[in-house]
């Protein structure tokens, strides 16, 4: 994929690159590159986006903003 997205959260711009997007049944998993770190986000049904286990946890609002951007672009 490799598409670069920009979001503005709290007056700060974040750029992230979508590396991989997998959808199996109602489970969506996306792998992104954010500030040089690869992060995996998951969405299961209508529960919203969560970060898979990672050594550097992100702010929940940032996870939701990134997930919403991906959802809107790819109609997940």
TrEMBL record:
<protein>
    <submittedName>
        <fullName>Uncharacterized protein</fullName>
    </submittedName>
</protein>
């Amino acid at each position: 994929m490799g598409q670069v997205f920009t979001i503005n959260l709290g007056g700060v711009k974040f750029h992230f690159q979508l590396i991989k997007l997998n959808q199996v049944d109602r489970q969506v998993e996306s792998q992104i590159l954010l500030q040089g770190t690869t992060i995996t986000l998951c969405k299961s049904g209508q529960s919203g986006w969560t970060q898979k286990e990672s050594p550097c946890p992100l702010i929940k609002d940032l996870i939701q903003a990134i997930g919403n951007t991906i959802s809107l672009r790819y109609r997940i």
